[in-house]
Amino acid sequence: MKKSEDSQKFVAYVRKAASLQKGQGLRSEQRALRKISEKRSLRLEAEIAENLPAQRAGTRSGFNRMIGLIEDGKVDAILCQGWSVLTRNPVEAVRLIELMKDGRLKEVVTPTLVITKESLENNGPSWLTALETNSRTGLQAKKSQRPKSPAIR
User: What is the pTM (predicted TM-score) of this model?
Assistant: First the structure.
């Protein structure tokens, strides 16, 4: 990990995905992030957990609260289980990238990855591919949840 994490103020963000295995609820995800925070000596300022789908922009109150904390300067880094937790919705994903480019969001830390403005700029095409894949997954999930329209005869 980089030394910059020592001064970052983190929010731990957990969203219960439908794909989680049985027993992997919000509480176990929160415990896992706390362990990562302790192991890496991250300064955890807030924890947000929600159990809402991410397909529609603006519908996740916890995500919106996290964005507000970043915009207000109360936190400047996110700890989460994976980039895909944040980027299922393309509008919200772009918002995070904008916050990173503006310098208000310094890092997104996952168990296996640290995402920074520099990594986004240096790996632009691969991040865009990941964003496209995550967004497509979210949109497909949204489509499968729509009620079927009755056939018009």
Answer: 0.75
